[in-house]
């Protein structure tokens, strides 16, 4: 699912080469759920890890700071040098953006770290209380989400956390009670596919949803709640559709390739935007022609060039691996060894 998701990320960024990308239906489909997908997977994998290892809060936070915050700050600096030189943004202003609105550049890494920190009390309690009381942890997580939604500041990206923490927590709890929810597996694919196809035409990334005037007129007190319910439901149904697609591909060569790509999602995520600058021809294909060939070319280039830079440069240096991928490995490595390390470290941490 991570491999499938990173392809959607590259595709979405390639589509943004067109000035009218928000009107592109393929772009709207991708952006309606592709980042919630990664938060959902991360929450799910956290629970998988907790079932195998006891949680040590301090070392847990330090590890997440290494694997997420260090790369976020390193790439933020690189991103700042490039964009600052282009737009004459002062370093003081750039640091101010980092603190008060870190919602551009590599915001996902920082917000994912905040999600891990926010769910830490729930995860810690889950391993220490009687199983009969664990459903109460949903109430604790819901309280956390409620408090986050009361904040109206961009300080430290909290305005992003109050949206994405929901998907992270849903993934965590679905994994926690996956055996109890097994009865749902017979009919959830149909619900997700049909529901997503019915709802996605009405979703917009910018501006308001087409149905908002109707809701304000007929349900003024509940219009915002209904809009949020629509967005959350649409994203969860999109995640369910991806799960069904990946399940169908799992046993074939495409599934194995997606699984391999999924171990390097962090590498591809942080590098692929820079690779577009190295190949303007791909950007022209994806933005001006806008057809499937151009987009497929951009996706292929983004994956190939990102992994080439990672294997040939970043993963060959202990310092660069630590700064830009959050990998702490004192051994000198080659691409084959780097792949083995990625299976154990990057695959989960990203």
Overview of this protein structure:
With 350 residues, the protein is an all-alpha fold. Helices cover 73% and strands 0% of the residues. It has 18 helices and no strands. The longest helix has 31 residues, at 57-87. The chain is globular.
Mind sketching the topology for me?
Layout: H1 2-15, H2 25-31, H3 34-50, H4 57-87, H5 91-100, H6 107-126, H7 136-149, H8 158-176, H9 188-199, H10 212-218, H11 223-249, H12 253-262, H13 265-278, H14 280-289, H15 292-312, H16 318-325, H17 335-344, H18 346-349
H-E string: HHHHHHHHHHHHHHHHHH
Percent of residues in beta strands: under 5%
Q: What is the 3D form?
A: globular
In the predicted model, the low-confidence regions spanning at least 5 consecutive residues are 332-350
* Portion of residues within helices: over 70%
What is the CA-CA span between the terminal residues? 13 Å
Number of helices: 18
Determine Rg (CA atoms, Å): 21 Å
């Amino acid at each position: 699912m991570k491999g499938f998701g990173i392809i959607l990320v590259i595709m979405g960024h390639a589509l943004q080469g067109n000035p009218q990308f928000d009107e592109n239906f393929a772009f709207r489909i991708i952006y309606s759920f592709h980042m919630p997908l990664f938060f959902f997977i991360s929450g799910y994998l956290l629970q998988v890890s907790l079932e195998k290892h006891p949680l040590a809060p301090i070392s847990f936070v330090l590890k997440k700071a290494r694997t997420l915050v260090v790369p976020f700050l390193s790439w933020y600096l690189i991103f700042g040098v490039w964009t600052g030189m282009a737009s004459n943004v002062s370093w003081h202003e750039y640091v101010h953006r980092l603190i008060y609105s870190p919602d551009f550049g590599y915001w996902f890494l920082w917000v994912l770290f905040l999600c891990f920190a926010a769910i830490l009390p729930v995860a810690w309690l889950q391993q220490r209380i009687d199983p009969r009381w664990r459903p109460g942890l949903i109430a604790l997580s819901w309280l956390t989400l409620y408090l986050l939604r009361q904040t109206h500041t961009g300080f430290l990206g909290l305005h992003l956390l109050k949206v994405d923490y929901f998907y992270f927590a849903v993934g965590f709890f679905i994994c926690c009670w996956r055996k109890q929810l097994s009865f749902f597996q017979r009919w959830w694919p149909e619900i997700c596919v049909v529901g997503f196809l019915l709802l996605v035409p009405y979703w917009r990334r910018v501006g308001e949803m087409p149905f908002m005037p109707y809701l304000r007129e007929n349900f003024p007190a509940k219009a915002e709640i209904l809009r949020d319910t629509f967005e959350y439901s649409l994203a969860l149904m999109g995640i369910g559709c991806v799960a069904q697609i990946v399940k169908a591909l799992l046993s074939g060569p495409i599934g194995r390739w997606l699984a391999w790509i999924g171990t390097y999602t962090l590498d591809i995520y942080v590098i692929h935007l820079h690779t577009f600058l190295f190949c303007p021809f791909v950007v022209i294909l994806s933005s001006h022609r806008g057809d499937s060939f151009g987009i497929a070319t951009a996706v292929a280039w983004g994956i190939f060039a990102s992994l080439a830079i990672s294997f040939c440069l970043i993963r060959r240096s202990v310092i660069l691996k630590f700064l830009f991928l959050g990998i702490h490995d004192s051994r000198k490595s080659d691409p084959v060894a780097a792949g083995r390390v990625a299976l154990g470290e990057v695959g989960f941490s990203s």
